[in-house]
Amino acid sequence: MKILKVACVTFVVILGIGSAIRQSAPRARAADGVTAGVRVADREGNLRVPDDYRTSYQLLGSWAIAADGGGGSKEFHVVYASPGVIDAYRKDKRFPDGAVLIKEVFRAATSEMTTGTVSRADALKGWFVMVKDTRNRHPDSALWGDGWGWSWFDAGDRSKTTTTNYKAQCLACHVPARTSDWVYVDGYPPLRH
Ligand code: HEC
Questions:
Q1: What is the residue with the minimal CA distance to atom 26 of ligand 1?
Q2: What is the Å distance from ligand 1's center to 28 Cα?
């Protein structure tokens, strides 16, 4: 009876340690961004917009695109980074492998408020997604290269991109940010201390 009890307690302790290790491992890996990258890109390199980024990612910053005639904004861009990316960037001054950047694009609505003429995020148009890839994982893909995976998603479909060629549809417009790994880092205060 006593032996059985000792065996039971030992078994429970081992189970407990086992689940503690299992729980801490993904969290440790998430810190270098890799886990996020794995969840956003499948083996073939197809990207998707993760369901929970608004609660699990960290806010990098936002951009307001002025309306053509003045008087408010016509678009808002809100940019998020996967967990751990901000800390890693502050430390190493570069984006870690697997880092995910998501840019939401909103139509803006402008109205008079007690603070003045104010524009706010209205309907979501879609998402731009970039995944850091230091290993050149998909050399034959037209959506991967120059150190990143690249894709746009219309608001109605977060798993099927409409992008077919990142060089033609993304890269040219990111040339001004080439020296900061194609990312417009000036717009992201959290990357600075
Ligand atoms: C018309 C030019 C243009 C095109 C096309 C474009 N981008 Fe960008 N992108 C920008 C600019 C400028 C910013 C920062 C300012 C802003 O959002 O207006 C930006 C920001 C981003 C960000 C936020 C991180 C960062 O780099 O600052 C992501 C992610 C992004 N773009 C991904 C993409 C992807 C993926 C594509 C192709 C599917 C793409 N972009 C096509 C100009 C462009």
A1: 183
A2: 30
Percent of the chain surpassing pLDDT 90? 78
Q: pLDDT of 48-94, one tens digit each?
A: 999 999 999 999 999 999 999 878 999 999 999 999 999 999 999 99
Alpha-carbon separation of residue 27 from 15, 32, 47 (angstroms):
19, 10, 22
Whose alpha carbon is nearest atom 22 of ligand 1?
A: 103
Which residue matches tokens 């309306």?
Answer: 67
CA distance 178 to 174: 7
Nearest-CA residue for ligand 1 atom 32 is: 128
Q: How confident is the model at residue 35 (pLDDT cuts 50, 70, 90)?
A: low
